[in-house]
Amino acid sequence: NSLSVPQVQVAVTDNDTASTSLAVNTGGAAVTTGGVSYLADQYFTGGTTFSVTSAIGGTTDDVVYQTERYGSNFTYAVPVANGAYSVTLKFSENWFNSAGQRVFDVNAEGGLVLDNLDIFAQAGGKFIAKDFVIPVTVNDGVLNLQFTSSVDNAKIDAIQIAPQSAPAAGLVVTQSGGSTAVTEGGATDTL
């Protein structure tokens, strides 16, 4: 017995949500520097702003390190598509003149990512840029960052969020019985 099946045409439309980069000039106005457009400070709860006009070492993007949000405990809840991100947290110690005067923790998505951060000690002095790139996975449509002080106040100068490069997803079409399943990047739609 040979069974003949007529040819079937399948049209597939890729409707994945594309993740895009986002940057926030915490404590400051919207600005474009170094090819990056930073939004004005938003998505925060708590904290206070502060700014300086001093030159910042270790960067050509002084303007984003000259403004900050600080406080004993404050948060950012940034709306993003679900996925894996590289989050760059930008710091410069613009107030204290020695190590040990500001120490704080940073949590991302509920997990500790920077423990007992002393910007002055890490950067090697006052008015020197220091960035930390943190891998973060978002599953609820909101990137949650929490800044909690141990000594004096926590602070942040800018936040950059960029999707991590994902390998090209394969497309698999499977026919079973009277239905067709299309799988791409681990997600399956049944038609």
Please, could you describe this protein's structure?
There is one protein chain. The chain is mainly beta and 191 residues long. The protein is 5% helix and 51% strand. The chain is built from 2 helices and 17 strands. The chain has a 6-stranded mixed sheet with strand order 2-3-1-14-8-11. The protein has a 5-stranded antiparallel sheet with strand order 4-7-12-9-10. Strands 5-6-13 form a 3-stranded antiparallel sheet. Strand 2 and strand 3 form a beta hairpin. The longest helix is centred in the middle third of the chain and has 5 residues, at 119-123. It is elongated, with a radius of gyration of 23 Å. The model is unreliable at 14-18 (pLDDT under 50).
State the major sheet.
Answer: 6 strands, mixed
Structural class: mainly beta
Give the H and E element order: EEEEEHEEEEEHEEEEEEE
What is the strand tally?
Answer: 17
**How many helices in DSSP terms?**
2
Radius of gyration, in Å, reads 23 Å
Strand order of the largest sheet: 2-3-1-14-8-11
Distance between the termini: 29 Å
| Estimated share of beta-strand residues | over 45%
Taking all residues together, what is the mean pLDDT? 88
Helix content: under 10%
